[in-house]
Amino acid sequence: MKEILTNEVKLNNQDVNTIDRKEFMRQVGIGFGAIMLMNCLQSCGVGGEIPDPNPTTNTKLDFTIDLKTNDYSGLKTKGAFAVVKGQNVIVAHTNNDTWIAVSSKCTHEQTTINYRASSNDFLCPNHGSEFTFIGNVQKGPATSPLSRYNTSYDATNNTLRVFA
Ligand code: FES
Predict the structure, then answer these.
(1) In the chain, which ranges are E strands?
(2) 9 CA to middle of ligand 1, Å?
(3) Pocket of ligand 1, candidates 111, 113, 130: which has the most ligand atoms within 8 Å of its Cβ, to mutate?
(4) Which intervals hold domain Rieske (predicted)?
């Protein structure tokens, strides 16, 4: 059988460098492997920050909500609560005039929870899990607690800071 692929052939009387099929596939494989490795490293967080799937250890959480805005002015009423946009945090103003904040996603299947002022706890509307005002499970099926955050109310500026 005639050798089809050679290391060097003449094409239109010009020298053209070529590579054989095996070498071509090897180089493509290396390039593809490098791309896949970079994608994997990026998605795994190597070389960057690894997203924290458990906000309990999210020590960077720190934001302030303005209770003068339409989104949060209702929180000034005792017994009211709000899920803070973009933060996965639920804030409640208790009937005792204190402020509480926990992660807003149920630890069972990530449904957004509600606050119950009458019992000062949190209820998941999906399967009925209940959490205490500090986020501990008081009724399943959830088995893991919510993350609890600190709050600091600024009466002068009418703002509420929530932080880990
Ligand atoms: S998602 Fe909350 S109890 Fe199932």
Answers:
(1) 8-11, 14-17, 62-66, 81-84, 89-93, 99-103, 114-116, 121-123, 130-131, 137-139, 148-154, 159-163
(2) 68
(3) 111
(4) 67-160
Map residue 39 onto helix, strand or coil.
Answer: helix
Q: What is the arithmetic mean of pLDDT over 12-36?
A: 55
Domain coverage including residue 31: 6-48
Number of domains, the chain = 2
**Residue owning the nearest CA to atom 4 of ligand 1:** 127
Pocket of ligand 1 (CB under 6 A): 106, 108-109, 111, 124, 126-129, 141-142
Domain boundary (33, 48, 63) is at 48
**pLDDT per position as a tens digit, 78-97:** 999 999 999 999 999 999 99
- Considering the domain architecture, whether residues 34 and 63 belong to the same structural domain is answered as no
The atom of ligand 1 lying closest to the CA of 113 is 2
Does the reported pTM lie above 0.70?
A: no
- Asked if residue 128 is part of any domain, the answer here is yes
Cα of 142 from ligand 1 centre, angstroms: 6
Q: What's the pLDDT tens digit per position in 124-145? A: 999 999 999 999 999 999 999 9
